[in-house]
Amino acid sequence: MTSNGLFYNLKYHPNNKILLYIMKNFIKFLSVVFLLSSIVLACTSPQKLLEKGNYYEAVIQSVERLKKNPNNKKARETLAQAYPLAIENLLEDLKKDKLIQPQFANSHAAYTYEDLNRIYEKIQQSPVAKEIIKNPQKFYAELSEIKSLAAEEQYLAGTEQLSMGTKENAKKAYYYFQDADAFVGNYKDVSEKMELSYNMALIHVIAEFKSINSKMYKLSAESFYEQLQNGLQQIEQNKFVRFYSVSDAEKANLNNPDQFLEINFEDFVVGETHTKERIENMEVDSVKTGEITLDSGRKKDVFGTVKAEVSINHMEIISRGIVNLTIIENNRNILLNDNFPGDFIWFNEWGYYNGDERALNKNQLEICRNKQIPPPPPQQMFVEFTKPIYVQINNRLKNFYRNY
């Protein structure tokens, strides 16, 4: 990360070529996205879906197209062909599931009846589709009857997994109980079983953010750690993992956590300053330097070489650091031990010249108009170099706990 002054931004440079380049390439990107979208839509047209044997989706897509354009001849023809095939296929699936997956035959049958009813509902939503399919079949009675059987299947599977006593089995049990509840709300004591299996599946992690040995940067480190804490809370929302600070773990009497997570600033430096001055001798030919009057009285431009000596001062202030992330199991087995570097470079250039201004290029002229400005405060530079570190650690934690 670099910045020429603390608040450097492209928007302050309306003629910046970089901005123009980005805009042009963004337009190209949109064109490519549009082209790819068109290809995908062509490949998933109702007719293509019918040809590939995906009769269910062919029906759904045909009805959607007829809603937008009731005179769509291809969609009419595809719906007429795909509907009986879709019903036949789904009813055939009911028979197959009883043989292939007898343990969850009723669950799969419930899903199949839901698909059958969705076809019926889609057709009912389109007057044109109702004209084409005169008597669409509905299976509400069959679905209602089988849902309780499906809920019992999921409930028994969850109970079996829960009895095995491991966290992984408890997690499977939770999802079985969740499905049972989806088939029949408040089925038996499924709410209590879901809570029990969830708590059994939880991974309890004590997260410790080590303080740094610097009063000057204490606030900046706390801001960095607050961001990481928010990231941990986001992980908790969808995973079987719960993070505790050291104090929270003590309050909860968590004496036997599953993991210890530690984040520590291994090393950092703020305000490493480098300054240098360079001299550039400039010379430009064919520059108008004046004019003369010929004997005829006509004036004529005089061209020559212009020169200038440019002195450019460059100040560069580097801030960088390394943060260590370690995750250890309760048995002291190290699961993860990574270092994450980050840096922030602030710079400022200013200068002056002696000679003819016309000898300077555009960049030199801009630098010579600059003034020496003070760098941002150390606290701000600390925050800046930790930003890329936060992104790295947050992504690493998300990936690590993805399967929990």
Structure commentary:
With 404 residues, the protein is α/β, with parallel strands linked by helices. The protein has three domains: 11-43; 44-202, no CATH class; 206-400, 2-Layer Sandwich (Double Stranded RNA Binding Domain), CATH 3.30.160. Helices cover 52% and strands 25% of the residues. The protein is built from 13 helices and six strands. The chain has a six-stranded mixed sheet with strand order 1-6-5-4-2-3, sandwiched between helices. Strand 2 (203-209), helix 10 (218-238) and strand 3 (241-244) form a beta-alpha-beta unit. Helix 3 runs antiparallel to helix 4 and helix 10 (218-238) runs parallel beside helix 13. It starts with a strand and ends with a helix. The model is unreliable at 2-21 and 35-42 (pLDDT under 50).
Q: Which labels suit this protein?
A:
404 residues; single chain; alpha/beta; 13 helices; 3 domains; disordered N terminus
